[in-house]
Amino acid sequence: MRTTVGIIGAGPAGLFLSHLLHQNGIESVVLERRDRAYCERRQRAGVVEHGVAEALRDTGLGERMDREGFRHDGIELRFDGRGHRIDFPDLTGRHVMIWAQTEIVKDLIARRLADGGRIVFEAEATGIEGIESDRPRIRFASGGAEDVLECDYVVACDGFHGIGRTSLPEEVVRTYDKVYPFAWLGILADVPPSCDELIYARHERGFALHSMRSETVSRLYLQVPADTDPADWSDDRIWSELAARFELRESDWKLGTGPITDKSLTPMRSFVTEPMRHGRLFLAGDAAHIVPPTGAKGLNLAMRDVMLLAEGLRSWYGTGDGAGLDAYSDTALRRVWRAEHFSYWMTSLLHIDPAATPFDKRLQQSYLEHIAACRPAAAQLAENYTGLPAV
Ligand SMILES: Cc1cc2nc3c(=O)[nH]c(=O)nc-3n(C[C@H](O)[C@H](O)[C@H](O)COP(=O)(O)OP(=O)(O)OC[C@H]3O[C@@H](n4cnc5c(N)ncnc54)[C@H](O)[C@@H]3O)c2cc1C
C-alpha cells in the first residue's frame, strides 16, 4: 500500500489531520488498531477551546456541535463553601464548547468515509522504518497478515502507549515526566446537570468536578488515591462524597443524583517528549505529550498539533516551502509547555496532595481568594482555559 502521509491512530489527532489534509488535496491513510465501534465510544474529554471549535466549524465539522453541544461562557470555582464565577466573554471575549470527544470522533470518521478517505480499522502498526530516508514505511498487522504502508511522511497520532514515540532514536529524545499522587474517579450518570456550567470544587476532602454530556447525562469526577479500584466505590458512596465536596453554605443548591452508567479511573500525569519530529516521522497529540485533565487541554492540544502540521504539509506540497515543517516541533512545543504549566497549576491549586502541610493548604486557599477578588488573576485563568490564540 502507498500513500502520501501515513497516519497511525484514529483518535481525534489522526482523524482531524487526515480530514485537514484531504481538504488541501493531500492523500493519507489512517491505520487504527481498534475497531470503529470502540473508537466511537471511548469516553474521554469534553471541553473544546474557542479556537478549536472555530477550526471544526471552518472545516465543515461544526454543525452537530453547534446544534447538540453547549456554549459555555464561564466556569465556577467552588471553595470554602462558596462559588465564584469566571466569566469568559467578559475577561477574554472568548467561550468554550462542551462537546464530547466521542462525538468529535464519530463526526470525523463519518466525514472521512463520506469523502472517500481510507481508515483501516483493526490494523496495528508494529514498526516504523526508514524515517531518515525519503521513503519511510509503516509495518502493520491486519486480518492475521503482515502488510506495509509506504509514504512520504509518517505521523504518529497513536496516543501515549503507541509505537511512534519509541521509534525516535534514543539519542535525540528528551522526556519530562511528573506523576501525581492521586487520580480521578469519573462517572457518567443518567441525571440532568445540576447547573448550567462546570464546577471546579476544592474541598478539604479533595477535588471534585461537575460537568455534563447532554441535557440528561452528567459527567462527574472525584479526586481519589492513585491506586483506587473503582469497584470499591458503590454508587451511594460516590454520590455522598460528591455531595460533601460540592456543598454550599448559605444556599439551598443540591446535587441531583441518578443511575450511574459508567465508572472509570483516570491517572494524573504530565509528560512531554522533545523533539516532536525526527527525519520523516512527526509526533502529534498524546503520542508526544500528556497533561492531567484539570485544565481540559489534552484533546485541544492534540487538535492544535495537527492544525499546525497540516498547515506545514499544505505549504510543502503546495509551494515547496518546508519552513512550516521545519518549525513544527519548536512551534508546537511552545503551546505544549504553556498548556503543561496551566494544567499543572490548575491541578496543584484544586487538589489536596496527601503530603500537603497546613501551610501548603493555606497557600492554595489564598490563591483561590486572589482569583475570586482580582480581575487580572481571573483573566489569566480564563485566557488559558479558553485557549491562547497564539503562543
Ligand atoms: C481515560 C482518559 C480520560 C481523559 N479525560 C480527559 C478529559 O476529561 N479532558 C481532556 O482534556 N482530556 C482528557 N483525556 C485526554 C484526551 O482524551 C487525549 O488528550 C486525546 O484523546 C488525545 O488524542 P490523540 O488522538 O492524540 O490520542 P488517542 O485519543 O489516544 O488516540 C490514539 C489512537 O491510536 C491508536 N493506536 C495506538 N497504538 C496504535 C498502533 N500501534 N497501531 C494503530 N493504532 C494505534 C489507539 O487505539 C487510538 O485510537 C483523557 C484521556 C484518557 C486516557
Keywords summarizing the entry:
alpha+beta, FAD/NAD(P)-binding domain, D-Amino Acid Oxidase, Chain A, domain 2, 2 domains, eight-stranded mixed β-sheet, six-stranded mixed β-sheet, 11 helices
Hetero ligands: flavin-adenine dinucleotide
**What is the CA-based Rg, rounded?**
21 Å
Q: What would you call the shape?
A: globular
Give the amount of beta strand, in percent: 25-35%
Unreliable sequence segments: none
Percent helix, as a range, is 25-40%
CA-CA gap between termini: 38 Å
CATH architecture of the largest domain: 3-Layer(bba) Sandwich
Give me the oligomer status.
single chain
Mean pLDDT: 97
**Structural domain tally:** 2
> At the first level of CATH, what is the class of the largest domain?
Alpha Beta
The CATH fourth-level homologous superfamily of the largest domain: FAD/NAD(P)-binding domain
Number of strands: 20
Secondary structure class reads alpha+beta
Widest sheet, order of strands = 6-5-14-15-16-13-17-20
- Main sheet: strands, sense, barrel: 8 strands, mixed
Number of helices: 11
Quote the CATH topology of the largest domain.
FAD/NAD(P)-binding domain
Topology summary:
Blueprint: E1 5-8, H1 12-23, E2 28-31, H2 36-41, E3 47-48, H3 50-58, H4 63-68, E4 70-72, E5 74-79, E6 82-87, H5 88-92, E7 96-98, H6 101-114, E8 118-120, E9 123-129, E10 137-142, E11 145-150, E12 153-156, E13 174-189, E14 198-203, E15 206-212, E16 218-225, H7 235-246, E17 260-274, E18 277-278, E19 281-283, E20 289-290, H8 298-319, H9 323-350, H10 358-373, H11 375-386
Parallel strand pairs: 1-2, 1-12, 2-8, 5-14, 12-19
Antiparallel strand pairs: 3-7, 4-7, 5-6, 9-10, 10-11, 13-16, 13-17, 14-15, 15-16, 17-20, 18-19
Helix pairs in contact: 1-6, 1-8, 8-9, 10-11
Bound molecules: flavin-adenine dinucleotide.
Flavin-adenine dinucleotide is lined by residues 8-14, 31-34, 39, 44-45, 101, 124-125, 157-159, 162-163, 266, 285-286, 293, 296-299, 302.
